[in-house]
Amino acid sequence: MEMIAERGLEQLTMAALGREVGMSSGHLLYYFGSKDELLLRTLEWSEGRLGAERGRLLARPEPARARLEAYVDLYVPDGHRDPHWILWLEVWNRSLNADEQGRDRQAAIEGAWHRDLVALLAEGVSRGEFRAVDADRFAARLRALLDGFSIHVAIGLRGTGRDQVLAHAREFLDEALGADA
C-alpha cells in the first residue's frame, strides 16, 4: 500500500515490490496475476481494516450525530497522499478499463460504506435526532460530497485541508439534518 501511494501504480514495478517484501516478482505475479489484481486486493485489505474500525465506531453507545461525525472523520483522508485514498484514486482511474468482476468488487467495498451510513442516518431519524430525510438518498449525496472534498485533500489541492473539509461537512450536516442534529 505504501509503495503504491508513494510511486503510483504505473511507476510500481513487480521487481521493486518483490525486493521490498522479500519475494520474487515471479511469486508476486503467481499470487496476484497482474498489477490490477494486486491493486484491488490491496484495497480490499485496507478496506477490511477500515470496515472493522467503522463497525466499532458505529457500535458506540453515543448519539447518532457523534457517530456520524466519527464516520466522516474516518472517511476523510488524513492529508496529502493518504495511502488509503491513493489506492482509491488508482482504482477509480483504472475502472474505465476494469472487467465486470473488478467493478463488482469495487462496488461491494463502496456498498459497505453506504449501507453503514444509511443505517446510521435511519437510526438518527427514527430517534428524532435528525430531520426526516430519505436515508439512502442523503447517504449518496453525503458520500459524493465527501468523495469530492477527499480527493482534493488526497492530491494536496491548495486551500483544501482536512480541517477545512471536516468543518464544511459539519456545517452541511447542521443545515441538512437540523441545527439540533
From TrEMBL:
GO molecular function, one term: DNA-binding transcription factor activity
Keyword DNA-binding: yes
All residue ranges annotated as the HTH tetR-type domain in the record: 1-50
Membrane-spanning parts: none
InterPro entries registered for this protein in UniProt: BetI_C, Homeodomain-like_sf, HTH-type_TetR-like_transc_reg, HTH_TetR, Tet_transcr_reg_TetR-rel_C_sf
Pfam families: TetR_C_6, TetR_N
Keyword list, A-Z: DNA-binding, Repressor, Transcription, Transcription regulation
Binding region for DNA: 13-32
The protein's name in its UniProt record: HTH tetR-type domain-containing protein
